[in-house]
């Protein structure tokens, strides 16, 4: 019998790829009018998928917090284990697993760029740092200067020997940098100007690889990357790995 998965938020009707991936492993219920507190108290679902921005609604009712989640206050799913929900960032874990599956194409000692909104970038940077990457440029969309400085200081206190550069998406297109890997969840509507300028990929090395976590909704970056002869891993690979990871967790749960 399949485990039960609730989509509270984070997967819209336009994202059929992720919905199908979830349904291949789980008995899926989409959206509910229940409150976060009620969902956690009733514990009727083995996995709850949430948008990163909704995590703060659940946090006050969670008795068990993963160390990374407690420090960053970012999660995209809740997993029921030993009668308690545990918050995780499954997409970040999936990205690291995809990277490891392509280790012959990626050198963890070379620079990496992660671009997207604050929650996504923070979670992925932490996962990469824990996975052995120590030279990372975090390009945030929609973040103010004071917020960037706070993020930089937080990581400085959390991760030893991490060379982390924190910038805005617009700054990325004008820097002198040569990364071997770029992980993107940058949507055009976030910042149209930066998005279009980014397609020159002048901040990537000649053998670089792009992991695009938004390619199913808009594959423009992927197409431009291929024109620039940049290697590409599309969203489908990350999504598939995400639900494979969740199913593995559930196999080890009663």
UniProtKB/TrEMBL annotation:
Name of the protein this chain belongs to: Uncharacterized protein
Q: Which organism is it from?
A: Pseudobdellovibrio exovorus JSS
Q: Identify the taxonomic lineage of the organism of origin.
A: Bacteria, Pseudomonadati, Bdellovibrionota, Bdellovibrionia, Bdellovibrionales
